[in-house]
Design brief:
- With about 110 residues, this protein is mostly beta strands.
- About 0% of the residues lie in helices and about 55% in strands.
- It is built from no helices and eleven strands.
- The strands form two sheets. Strands 2, 4, 5, 6, 9, 10 and 11 form a seven-stranded mixed β-sheet that branches.
- Strand 7 and strand 8 form a beta hairpin.
- The N and C termini lie far apart (about 35 Å).
- The relative contact order is 0.33.
Length: about 110
């Protein structure tokens, strides 16, 4: 199982960035994005199930959109109106449909700074 995140970038406050995570080696029932700010614990940003049901952390609702493309076996995170405190590593996470094990991808760095 491999989860390859991309979309790393430096943006100014209020700007947008799109992250993508390409998965391989399995079919996943749930896919998610987490983030970890410097010196803080990793936190859940958003999840999406195979049928497409989504769930968001309160702090990103109405600004972030998670989506998945089952044909590509990928999950994307569109982030709008980014804030400096949202700087950190963003990590893709997915649960295998068969077996139910969770897997992490490597982080991709998002920097929000003026």
């Amino acid at each position: 199982v491999q989860l390859q995140a991309s979309g790393e970038g430096l943006v100014q406050p209020g700007e947008s960035l799109r992250l993508s995570c390409a998965a391989s080696g399995s079919i996943f029932s749930i896919m998610a994005w987490y983030r970890q700010a410097p010196g803080k614990q990793r936190e859940l940003v958003a999840t999406i199930t195979n049928p497409g049901s989504t769930n968001y952390a309160d702090v990103v609702k109405d600004r972030f959109t998670i989506s998945r493309d089952n044909a590509r076996n990928a999950v994307d995170l569109q982030m709008n109106n980014l804030k400096p405190e949202e700087t950190g590593g963003y990590y893709c996470n997915a649960r295998r449909l068969i077996g139910g094990t969770w897997h992490w991808g490597q982080g991709t760095l998002v920097t929000v700074s003026s």
